[in-house]
Q: What sequence folds into this?
């Protein structure tokens, strides 16, 4: 049975202690062998009765992670998850309340509507307790997890091989792998051979780290086209400038290749950071804060999808396209999120379920 990690235990204990301060209310953590992302139950009880809910634990939630968190918790609605966090910002609390997702944080904010128990407190702003580092959500951990997802058998390889694939320091691999084992995202047999235990949950862990830690560091420029060019012109321009082997198409334009009936108005281009300025000029792109094209740096040699388009263009692989859609879903609420769901359903879940 997987045990909560040290930081998860800290959050659980803080919230159980907090619940006990309310008259007629007690709480306890109930260990259980649940599939990730759950790590056991929180049992709340008193003279009024009792409820028990599976725990989804998060900490240091950034705005981008918050959006993804709501997305994931909505998909788990049938299991009636209870989110526990070190601190839930008011903006995220509003979203959780709007979607009727139950949550508690370590300073007393919370929303639980589970008859006969009702708890609703918001607006508390005290600093949350200092948490241990979440290595798998940091930049190095995100790079490592990406390679584990790309190459299913890599987790069984020596740390040195994993470090080389992810282009990280050798000493960074061990703590990340240990954390993933503790979270029940990787498994280990009696001979110590590691394997992916839950590829979907591991990918969701990677998405949180990518959106919060890695993606902001990859941003190069936002651009508009010089007249008369537009988003529809990009495939032609890439071929004309002989950049098919260097430019990866992502974002909404890539989704138009992956999914039917999508008319792309925006695009993300993944470029070699050292060549980005030259390639922007070749593609008739000019810096503009509200332009339809986002330029980001490629962070690994295997960011491309295995199959090219019929025109020979390279697409960013589906995980990156999905995350770019979630990252950029700010103008038309839900538009890109729906595309992200289609990418997940059509390209990711089937592969993960067969792993």
A:
């Amino acid at each position: 049975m997987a045990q909560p990690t040290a930081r998860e235990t800290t959050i659980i204990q803080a919230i159980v202690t907090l619940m006990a301060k309310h008259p007629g209310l007690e709480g306890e953590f109930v260990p259980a062998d649940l599939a990730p992302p759950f790590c056991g139950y929180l049992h709340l009880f008193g003279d009024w009765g009792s409820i028990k809910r599976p725990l989804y634990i998060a900490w240091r939630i950034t705005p981008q992670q918050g959006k993804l968190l709501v997305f994931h918790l909505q998909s788990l609605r049938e299991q009636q998850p209870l989110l526990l966090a070190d601190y839930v910002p008011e903006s995220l609390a509003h979203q959780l309340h709007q979607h009727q997702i139950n949550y508690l944080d370590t300073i007393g904010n919370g929303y639980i509507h589970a008859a006969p128990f009702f708890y609703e407190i918001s607006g508390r702003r005290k600093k949350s307790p200092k948490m241990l580092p979440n290595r798998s959500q940091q930049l190095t951990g995100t790079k490592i997890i990406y390679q584990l997802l790309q190459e299913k058998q890599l987790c069984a390889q020596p740390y040195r091989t994993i470090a080389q694939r992810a282009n990280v320091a050798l000493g960074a691999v061990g703590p990340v792998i240990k954390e993933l084992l503790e979270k029940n995202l990787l498994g280990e047999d009696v001979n110590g051979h590691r394997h992916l235990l839950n590829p979907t949950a591991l990918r969701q862990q990677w998405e949180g780290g990518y959106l919060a830690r890695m993606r902001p560091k990859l941003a190069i420029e936002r651009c508009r086209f010089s007249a008369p060019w537009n988003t529809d012109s990009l495939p032609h321009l890439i071929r004309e400038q002989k950049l098919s082997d260097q430019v990866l198409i992502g974002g909404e334009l890539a989704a138009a290749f992956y999914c039917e009936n999508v008319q792309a108005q925006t695009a993300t281009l993944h470029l070699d950071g050292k060549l980005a300025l030259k390639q922007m000029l070749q593609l008739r792109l000019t810096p503009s804060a509200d332009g339809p094209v986002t330029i980001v740096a490629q962070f690994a040699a295997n960011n491309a999808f295995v199959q090219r388009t019929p025109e020979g263009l390279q697409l960013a692989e589906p995980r990156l396209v999905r995350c770019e859609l979630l990252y950029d879903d700010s103008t038309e609420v839900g538009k890109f999120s729906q595309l992200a769901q289609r990418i997940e359903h059509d390209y990711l879940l089937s592969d993960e379920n067969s792993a």
The CA atoms of residues 151 and 165 lie 10 Å apart. The first strand starts at residue 26 and ends at 30. The radius of gyration is 22 Å. DSSP finds twelve helices and 15 strands in the chain.
